[in-house]
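testing teh design pipeline on a random one, pls ignore if ur not involved
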């Protein structure tokens, strides 16, 4: 058995979601890092863009939000200013506006607060694994990887358990809006102008907003003022409060990003466990738990890229970037960069230091949920390896049809219980 290896010809079309159905085009990323680290791509569907593929370049640019702004959109697609205002979350803002919003909710995701979830997460892991593993052969993404972040999302938002499958399905429709397995409104295959002012250009945004309003009304009726949603509604230092549109978009962001990234990290970790000899024994020995979560997240790289927009002209690697140009930071490439990561196509659970930038390290948009993601990954694998003595592939894995979210949507495995 060997770990998954890229199959692209080194000249993949990064604008095509179909390219990523075979997994990330790492042969293309390797070529670009070596030969053209600031690469221009023309695009028939919109304005072309620059691709930054080296780890240290992205890290350096991440530290310059005044030069490369998030406030024009974070995905490849072009937006009108009207669409930007209607869809934006605090991901699509720059300091100081970004900072004011972030401060409101940061405490709810801080390391000490997240540490208090240990018992609840471990209990959920027990329930999920005790149901899935006796099946013997199953889809690990569906039965394990999807379940844990979905259930934790419910705890954070204060939603009833029975609502969670619907809630996560809507989150999938938002963030995986180019994969027909997750949405009836595939962004690049049909006209979605009707929903252009909805988050992610998706009708699921309106449905989630209606749900959020009812959820908050129900909580108010119970006198329940706890949770991250109440924090975001508090006035800022200047007395300002967020609008209904901003609240809708924040809720949609939590539902989508709070589930998908951890799901696909867990799936990638299980894929590695089933394919790379020695990982199971290494986990069972127990000496790698301080470093393993970050290595699993590096291997997954669940967000393939983030886009920025140049605010002024500048030069990099001999290329002239103009104000208004779109610049894509390919995190999936940076996390396989041989210049900073030794043997990047091997999962090394003891890797230390781990110089991945999957959480947006170096910039103001450092992932709010990174402590929770690390803890969920750690506890899930701790409980998994206690219960099994072998795990192997049981069929073909399938990747998302998306150049934005990188993930294994189907992962058939076979386990032998301990």
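output:
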């Amino acid at each position: 058995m060997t770990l998954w290896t890229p199959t692209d010809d080194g000249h993949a079309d990064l604008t095509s979601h179909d390219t990523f159905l075979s997994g990330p085009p790492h042969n293309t990323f390797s070529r670009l890092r070596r030969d053209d680290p600031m690469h221009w791509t023309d695009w028939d569907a919109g304005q072309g863009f620059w691709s930054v593929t080296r780890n240290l370049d992205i890290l350096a640019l991440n530290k310059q939000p005044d030069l490369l702004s998030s406030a024009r959109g974070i995905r490849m697609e072009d937006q009108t200013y009207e669409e930007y205002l209607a869809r934006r979350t605090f991901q699509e803002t720059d300091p100081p506006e970004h900072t004011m919003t972030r401060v409101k909710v940061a405490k709810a995701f801080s390391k000490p607060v997240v540490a208090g979830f240990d018992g609840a997460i471990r209990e959920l892991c027990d329930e999920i694994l005790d149901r899935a593993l006796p099946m013997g052969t199953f889809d690990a993404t569906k039965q394990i990887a999807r379940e844990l972040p979905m259930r934790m999302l419910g705890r954070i938002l204060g939603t009833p358990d029975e609502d969670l499958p619907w809630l996560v399905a809507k989150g999938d429709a938002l963030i995986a809006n180019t994969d027909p397995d997750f949405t009836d409104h595939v962004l690049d295959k049909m006209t979605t102008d009707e929903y252009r002012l909805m988050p992610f250009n998706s009708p699921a945004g309106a449905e989630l907003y209606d749900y959020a309003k009812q959820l908050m009304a129900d909580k108010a009726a119970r006198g329940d003022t706890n949770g991250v949603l109440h924090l975001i509604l508090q006035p800022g230092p200047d007395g300002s409060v967020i609008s209904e549109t901003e609240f809708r978009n924040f809720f949609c962001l939590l539902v989508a990003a709070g589930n998908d990234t951890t799901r696909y990290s867990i799936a990638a970790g299980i894929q590695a466990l089933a394919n790379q000899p020695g990982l199971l024994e290494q986990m069972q020995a127990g000496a790698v738990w301080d470093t393993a979560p970050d290595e699993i997240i590096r291997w997954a790289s669940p967000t393939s890229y983030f886009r920025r927009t140049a605010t002024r002209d500048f030069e990099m690697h001999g290329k002239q970037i103009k104000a208004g140009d779109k610049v894509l930071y390919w995190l999936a490439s940076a996390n396989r960069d041989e210049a900073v990561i030794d043997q990047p196509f091997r999962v090394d659970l003891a890797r230390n230091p781990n110089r991945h930038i999957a959480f947006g390290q170096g910039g103001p948009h450092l992932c709010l949920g990174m402590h929770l993601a690390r803890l969920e990954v750690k506890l899930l694998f701790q409980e998994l390896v206690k219960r099994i003595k072998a795990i192997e592939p049981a069929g073909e894995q399938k990747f998302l049809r998306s150049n934005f979210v990188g993930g294994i949507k189907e992962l058939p495995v076979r386990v032998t219980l301990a």
